[in-house]
Amino acid sequence: MAEHTHEHGHEHGHEHAAVATDTRPKLAVWKFASCDGCQLSILNCEDELLQIAESVHIAYFPEATRAVVEGPYDLSLVEGSITTPGDVERIHEIRAQSGTLVTIGACATAGGIQALRNWADVDEFRSIVYAHPEYLSTLDTSTPIASHVDVDYELRGCPVDKTQLVEVLAAFLNGRKPRIPTYSVCVECKLKGNVCVPVATGTPCLGPVTQAGCGALCPSYGRGCYGCFGPQDSPNTEAMTRQLAELGMTNADIVRVYRTFNAGSPEFAAASDKAAAVGDAAAASSPGGAP
Amino acid sequence: MTHQLKDGGQVMHVGMLARVEGEGGMHIEFEDGRVKDVKLNIFEPPRFYEGFLRGRKFTEPPDITARICGICPVAYQSASTEAMEAICGVTTTPEIQLMRRLLYCGEWIESHALHIFMLHAPDFLGYESVLEMAKDHPDVVQMALRLKKAGNDLMTVVGGRAIHPVNVKVGGFYRMPTVAELQRLRPDLERGRDDALAAVALVAGFDFPDMEQDYTYVALRHPDWYPLERGTEVVATSGVRFPVAEIPDHVEEFHVAHSNALHARFDGGTYFVGPLARYTLCFDQLSPATQEAALAAGLGETCRNPFKSIIVRAVELAYAFEEALRIVDGWRDGLAASVPVAPRAGEGVGASEAPRGLIWHRYRISEDGIIEDAQIVPPTSQNQASIEADLRTAAEKWTHLDDHALTHRCEEAIRNYDPCISCATHFLDLRVKRS
User: Fold this and answer.
1) B169·A223 Cβ contact <8 A
2) Which domain holds residue B220?
3) CA max distance for chain A
């Protein structure tokens, strides 16, 4: 049967009639290793969804429709990270078929939480989760889309913010740059009039090094930011690490706080490695000491 | 779609099953007009959650495991908080439990509205997607979007955002929503309840393929209410019942070559979790209005036709709105948002009823709160064998259909489960082989 296995995605529900006369830009939505949350954000635009579907021709979006229109596509939205040999090939095919390629969310832009494997022994992970690791085909790393192909724009967030997503769609459909701030969550907190959680309550907060876009959600709920939009444009992680330590976090805590949904972003990865090295050195100098 | 094989057999093939969450495929092989083999292939790449949770802190699973699924993050948050609180010997307050139930109502509303109207209804009404359906049924689609939005708005107020809420922690919440914030949701919740009750009658008018299956249904049960954010015991149509902590003694996970999601057996056999199981096992706990709507829609107090799961989801949708209204109306300000939870060494289980069915987590943590072992068993994994059994029945029952119609019917049989393949793997490639 193997000789009859098709590259998935082009088998059924073909639409023919409308293609020749439809002048709307063709939109495709692709998924790699992910939770589906960022593409769900498109369906969560309840007020805008029908208008979006009028402005663009939704040509490939399997989570929403059986209909499949062949490429090329004017705009591809890509969710998820690259974790299998097959996916490495598939992203190159998608790039070749796409005019503009935009990655959406922390998996696609930084490798996602599954990038924690980049610091681990994947063979051990395989055997922890699966009785027959030999059935699996998986890479030792989880990497962002831009590590494999040229990406025209990266929209951050775990998940992406739907207002930002609509802005990116509008921008690319109108041939302009998206207006997405790259400053820190702190700016959003100030704009919102939030009390600063580390200052007021001593709660560790990644807001100073994290890109805005969520609307300073966590501080608005009285908790510290946990970095789900990834590093802001000029993060001072050294000062951040120092402050986290002053607020009582251990080196192991600091390593963990940088290594979540954007663990694979260069700035957070470096900051976590540095904290891990300090922790290792401290452990070496005081045998029996806590990590 | 049909390919002749060298050996004279036939394979029907659908690349990616649409309108499901995640990536999977299906393989059906015929010999002499009989179904020879059925496989649900799941090729969604593994992300190894249970692997990288080792070494993380016991406070982290609500944020980390939420990322297993963008459609049902609260199911993961609830099961993980339950498990950690059980391990640490902490009981939260009744109000914290109520607020968890309210957040979970938001997830049921959002997820059920999505599946009923945007993923499932197009099968019954003959469309490729809800967007196409919108041209001929604008009122239905507008209602669907309203319903879904009401669920997302509820999650946003209670959880901070609809996908991956930020307000949930082990021990409770970071901040309790205020009466004023909750009361602002009230008009939409009230309209949603009325719309959902109307939706029960609407979807009950669809044509349903005639198929009944002898499932072993398994669901949580709570003494006071229809199972949602938690239960005290697990009940099954086989007659067994036992406390949640004993789930691992009854469920055995195993790995098959054609799926990146582990399969599971319940007391050694195939079982079914989800809306049909909850409905059949806990019909008595639905509200009078939702019971009445269900019976008026032609359902009995039990339901064994998987295609009618769309009606049961609509009943649960209405129930979730009623529950949300009940909690919102009874809310008071000034309640503690959380209770302190200090780690202690041990092992424990937490379970909740995800929109797609029973989900459970088992963790073992050290005395300083570091996770030593984690096991996460989502509904779609547990349902894989039932899905394959339904595919076998459907393929045998409708063998006479042409390949196109049979393929579509089999896809429908999978969508009946609202499968969440991202969850289960932590897709669908349909192949029918005839010889």
Assistant:
1) yes
2) 49-382
3) 74
Using a 10 angstrom Cβ sphere, with 0-12 exposed, 13-18 middle and 19 or more buried, the burial of residue A4 is: middle
Residues of A in contact with B60 (CB under 8 A): 256
Which residues 53-112 on chain A approach chain B with CB closer than 8 angstroms?
A: 53, 58, 62-67, 83-84, 87, 112
The model's pLDDT over A171-226, given as tens digits with 9 standing for 90+, comes to 998 999 999 999 999 999 999 999 999 999 999 999 999 999 999 999 999 999 99
Helix, strand, coil distribution of chain B in percent, nearest 5: 45, 20, 35
Residues of B in contact with A142 (CB under 8 A): 47
CATH number where A49 lies = 3.40.50.700
The answer to whether the CB atoms of A131 and B131 lie below 8 A apart is no
pLDDT at A143: 97
Count of domains in chain B?
A: 1
B367 lies in some domain: yes
What mean pLDDT is predicted for residues A62-91?
92
* 8 Å CB contact of B50 and A128: yes
Read off the pTM. Answer: 0.92
User: Total structural domains in chain A?
Assistant: 2
ipTM confidence: 0.90
What the block records as the tokens of B138 is 């604008």
pLDDT (tens digit per residue) in A101-130: 999 999 999 999 999 999 988 787 777 777
Interchain contact, A221 vs B160, CB within 8 Å: yes
Enumerate residues 31 to 50 of chain A having a beta carbon within 8 A of any beta carbon in chain B. Answer: 31-41, 43-44, 46-47, 49-50
CB atoms within 10 A of CB B342: 10
Residues A231, A268 contacting (CB under 8 angstroms) = yes
Residues in B touching A66 (Cβ below 8 Å) = 18-19, 122, 128-129
pLDDT tens digits, residue range B121-167?
999 999 988 888 999 999 999 999 999 999 999 999 999 999 999 99
Domain residues for the domain of A268 are 185-285
**Residue B40 domain-assigned?**
no
Strands A73-79 and A26-31: parallel
What is the predicted pLDDT for the residue at B428? 34
Answer whether B166 sits within 8 Å of A58, measured CB to CB: no
- Measured in whole angstroms, the distance separating CA B170 from the mean position of its chain's CA atoms is 22
CB contact under 8 A, B166 and A36: no
Q: Is residue A29 part of a domain?
A: yes
